[in-house]
Every structure is written in structure tokens, then in C-alpha cells.
Specification:
- The protein is an all-alpha fold and 55 residues long.
- Helix content is 76%, strand content 0%.
- It contains 4 helices and no strands.
- The longest helix has 17 residues.
Length: 55
């Protein structure tokens, strides 16, 4: 963090990159997958295999 305080250009570069990356996080895409996991957990159907799916 201290390095970023001293390097304004790098800080701005990272800010631009993070704003661009944030465009890929769309609730319309990710929410159905999250809801599926919650539904499986609540119903007791969530298994260790489900947990490893994202690895």
C-alpha cells in the first residue's frame, strides 16, 4: 500500500484495470449459480464434490 501512495501513476493504472474487471461481475450471470448452491445447502443435497467443482 505504501508503494501505491508513492506511485500515483501505478495507482491510477490499477484503478482503471479494476474498473474494467468489475464489468465482468454481473449479478444476472452469477446470481443463478449462487442461488443453486444455497438451494443445495438448504435441502441437504450439497456434497463435497459440489465444493470441489470450482477448483
Amino acid at each position: 500500500m505504501n508503494a501505491l501512495f508513492e506511485d500515483r501513476e501505478r495507482c491510477e493504472e490499477l484503478a482503471r484495470a479494476s474498473a474494467e474487471r468489475a464489468k465482468y461481475y454481473d449479478w444476472n450471470i452469477h446470481l443463478p449459480a449462487i442461488e443453486e448452491v444455497y438451494a443445495k445447502v438448504v435441502s441437504g443435497e450439497y456434497t463435497e464434490a459440489d465444493g470441489r467443482r470450482s477448483e
